[in-house]
Specification:
The protein is an alpha+beta fold. Helices cover about 15% and strands about 30% of the residues. It has four domains: about 5-35 and about 70-360, Glycosidases (TIM Barrel); about 365-460, Immunoglobulin-like; about 485-590, Bulb-type lectin domain (Agglutinin, subunit A, Orthogonal Prism), CATH 2.90.10; about 595-705, Agglutinin, subunit A (Orthogonal Prism), CATH 2.90.10. Strand 33 (about 575-580) and strand 34 (about 585-590) form a beta hairpin.
Length: about 700
């Protein structure tokens, strides 16, 4: 969790562990021990067909991770509360597991215990207490492991100790034996064990004890084992890790790289940190970026999709086959869980899994200034000035004729020059869209501009670039915000179509000079330019203006969005057709598509909000229990509607229920307010760009209007 030591002191961890089953075995055989069985009524059945599950135990393959299907880049996600949710709020847990499985994650990182006995009011983990004194504790850890894998195809990284302050040595061993017993017969469901989270701040006195128990566990299971992460701020953190992991006691090194953004490379510094792991000699060959900077993380936080996905890309290029997406949603979920953080930060990882070569951790690493890197990078590299030509880094990897590079932290532009004949494509790291394809001979170059990072993937020679047509995931679990884009200098020619990634929406430039957006062969928007002769092209200009030209160069329609260099046209899977600025902000909405809001079973927690597609209206569930719709003008908000519930104590959740009723609950589960729309199954809350707020049925028909809009 990369929190400070004094924060852990407030945990007030109390200990007294229950007796447990012993288990012993060897790395190569499983003799003895017991397997905790989960009764049929404890398992939650999958809804519909079960997802395809990974196969076989995970194992080291040099620097890569592999199972029965071969080498893969393992993508994890922090869910420290998962065990608590399995015991106390199974539906909430399953909504999150389903969402995570649909967005490309391979495993969850769960804490085994916070304490031996129940936490007390005021303790950091009081609301989500997990302790080994539960009478059904063994069933709970087995049940979570089974549910995640059997139903959702997710393995578990079990971090056994979230806190160990009052465990004596015998009690530590007993708890570890319980996990050994649980894991027998479930080895393929556990990606790896970690003895403790950040041992220096969770109650371990030095490294003697944790080294003892790491070796103990590693000798008794085939499952890969890590010790812990050091997090104290020292002049040489590597020395701490070397001391902790000395003598080969573990299979995996779990590193929490620093989140310092105060240096010249700013927020890109945490992204590039995994590159340093192989230089810390004596560490396990297999490494994990186990708790990187992310949305709402402690010390510093970063919501930027490009840098969050970039952290995973750099982990894999650097030779670390495990990367965990870390955010506040995975720690205590105080400001929303993963189903509520439906942003590109969460969803873009699915695209990354498509374009990232499997087993790239075994490729040859190449820094931008090394002889084996496929490109010469021109401009300021390393710690660049505020503007100009250059980037923070251009890390890469190669094998045979294939290469993969990730220029990141780009300033105005970065010129890359080919060192030999090659073909390659340039990919958007967040969406997976193939932006351009190139053939270069030695000495030829291109400029990368318009965003802060790119993926460059290709092959030497003149045969093919090795790229797919697109890495944008299709319908059925792709990124929610996946979008097709028309960027500066690109055109739509006559009788050509521009499609959303899922193919449900088509922007068609007709021969009658009309630009029309269709869904299911039904027109929903047009430029109203039908009948104008000599149709030629729709051009996305560098000044941010989208213009329709005739063959003689006469403009007949424009989006009137000039003055926005780097702007681009975007069409997403929900039908949103809009002009976005270079940072992805909305400049102008042409067609709204499916409005913003809350769908069935989605919820808001106090302090969270939902914004309209054009970002002009915001529905906020405030800490004073009032649900308020604001009209955002010049950066400030004017309230235009509210639920009238200000001052109600202890607000809990605002839930769009399956029966069609929008209900506000307090923390005890008592309803405070509701929309009075029950009896309309699968209805949703819709917030339109004009401010209209309504409960609508599955076809978009209004059931009840809460605010008519402007």
């Amino acid at each position: 969790m990369a929190t400070k030591l004094q924060l852990y002191v407030t945990f007030a961890l109390i200990v007294a562990i229950a007796a447990c089953t012993g288990a012993s075995s060897s790395k190569n055989s499983k003799n003895g021990g017991t397997t905790t069985k989960v009764s049929a009524d404890m398992k939650t059945a999958a809804k519909g067909e079960p997802r395809e599950k990974p196969e076989g135990r995970t194992r080291a393959s040099n620097r890569a991770l592999a199972d029965s299907r071969g080498e893969f880049n393992a993508l994890g996600v922090t869910t420290m509360w998962a065990l608590w949710a399995y015991k106390y709020d199974r539906p909430w847990l399953e909504r999150n597991l389903e969402y995570l499985a649909n967005n490309g994650f391979d495993y969850i990182r769960a804490l085994g215990v916070i304490s031996r006995e129940p936490a007390r009011p005021g303790d950091y983990w009081y609301r989500l207490d997990m302790n080994s004194s539960w009478g059904d504790y063994d069933q709970m850890i087995a049940g979570l492991t089974d549910l995640a894998y059997d139903v959702y195809g997710l393995r578990v990284e079990w971090t056994i100790f979230g806190g160990a302050a009052d465990f004596n040595e015998t009690q530590k061993g007993n708890l570890i034996d319980r996990f050994i017993g649980m894991s027998q017969g479930r080895e393929h469901k556990i990606i790896h064990f970690e003895i403790s989270n950040e041992y220096e701040g969770t109650g371990w006195d030095g490294d003697t004890s944790i080294r003892r128990w790491t070796r103990y566990l590693n000798q008794r299971t085939d499952i890969l084992v890590a010790a812990s992460a050091a997090y104290q701020e020292t002049d040489d953190l590597c020395k701490e890790f070397q001391a902790l992991y000395a003598d080969g006691i573990a299979d995996i090194g779990t590193w929490h790289f620093d989140r310092d953004i105060s240096k010249d490379d700013g927020y890109w510094r945490p992204v590039r940190q995994p590159w340093e792991y192989p230089y810390c000699t004596g560490m396990p060959t297999i490494g994990s970026n186990n708790e990187p900077l992310g949305p709402g993380s402690s010390v510093n936080s970063d919501d930027d999709p490009m840098r969050n996905v970039g952290g995973a890309i750099v982990s894999y290029i650097s030779g670390l086959p495990l990367h965990v997406f870390h955010s506040e949603a995975g720690v205590r979920a105080e400001r929303g869980d993963y189903t509520q953080f439906k942003t590109e930060v969460n969803s873009a990882f699915r695209a990354m899994k498509l374009y990232m070569p499997k087993g790239i951790t075994n490729w040859t690493r190449e820094n931008h200034h090394w002889a084996g890197h496929p490109f010469i990078s021109h401009g300021e590299l390393g710690y660049p000035p505020a503007r100009g030509s250059g980037a923070v880094r251009n890390y890469g990897a190669r094998t045979g004729t294939e290469f993969f590079t990730f220029p990141m932290g780009i300033l105005d532009f970065l010129k890359i020059e080919a060192k030999r004949e090659m073909k390659f494509c340039v990919i958007h790291p967040v969406t997976g869209e193939v932006l351009s394809r190139h053939y270069l001979q030695r000495g030829q170059s291109i400029d990368l501009r318009g965003q802060t990072a790119f993926v460059v993937k290709g092959k030497y020679g003149n045969s093919d670039d090795g790229c797919a047509d697109s890495y944008v995931p299709g319908a059925g679990g792709g990124p929610i915000n996946a979008k097709a884009t028309l960027r500066s200098g690109q055109n739509i020619n006559v009788d050509k179509a521009f499609k959303s990634p899922n193919g449900k929406y088509v922007l068609y430039y007709q021969s009658d000079n009309n630009l029309v957006l269709y869904t299911e062969d039904r027109p929903v928007w047009s430029s109203n330019t039908a009948g104008t002769p000599n149709a030629s092209r729709v051009s996305m200009q560098g000044d941010g203006n989208l213009v329709i030209y005739t063959r003689d160069g006469t403009p007949i329609w424009a989006s009137n969005t000039d003055g926005n260099p780097g702007a681009y046209l975007a069409l997403d899977n929900n039908g949103l057709l809009a002009m976005l600025n270079s940072k992805g902000g909305v400049i102008k909405v042409f067609y709204e598509g499916v409005p913003a809001g809350l769908k069935r079973d989605e919820m808001l927690k106090p302090g969270k909000s939902v914004s309209s597609t054009n970002q002009e209206y915001e529905l906020a569930f405030q800490g004073d229990s009032n649900l308020v719709l604001y009209h955002l003008v010049d950066g400030s908000g004017t309230p235009v509607w509210s639920s009238g519930t200000v001052g109600q104590p202890n607000p809990g959740n605002l839930v769009m229920q399956g029966d069609g009723n929008l209900v506000m609950y307090d923390q005890s589960g008592k309803p405070i307010w509701h929309s009075e729309t029950d009896g309309h199954n699968d209805a949703s809350l819709a917030l339109y760009s004009n401010g209209r707020l309504a409960i609508v049925d599955v076809n978009g028909n209004v059931i009840k209007e809460l605010f008519k809009g402007n």
